[in-house]
């Protein structure tokens, strides 16, 4: 194997495809596609999401300190692509797509009801890494489709057709 220098940008793959949903202080719901997302602590359970400050969702998460990570299935490709290419600054994406919403139990933010897993998070801290601000969210509650959960409460990812 002969190795030559590769591009540094996005050189780590695969990237997850999730939707982060949030609500502003006036009650407007929004969501965006996020690939910069990872587990960042096991105890306490925490997830990190990277949001570019120019996103409409950024200010919402910054002001409210909460967000929801929604796991997306192959069937939801269209919704994912729309939310990842249109800004809530110009329209109400939830009304436009007729997105069904459930309420968070621990956080004041919308859950995307048709996603099989919704993870409610409270921001514990953040770090500006460069293009993104990485928000470390403590997991407050996990909503899981009961068909996709094992007897011990673990999520059975073999049953989810991840996008
Ligand atoms: C596959 C994919 C991955 C994306 N990942 C991120 C990401 O990690 N962070 C981010 O800030 N934007 C990401 N985006 C872009 C936002 O989802 C997009 O700019 C969205 O329209 C912002 O919506 P908003 O302005 O309503 O917040 C991604 C888009 C796509 C299609």
TrEMBL record:
It holds the Pfam family Flavin_Reduct. Its cofactor is FMN. The keyword Flavoprotein applies. It comes from the Bacteria. One of its GO terms (molecular function) is FMN binding. Keywords: Flavoprotein. This is Flavoredoxin. It comes from Clostridium ljungdahlii (strain ATCC 55383 / DSM 13528 / PETC).
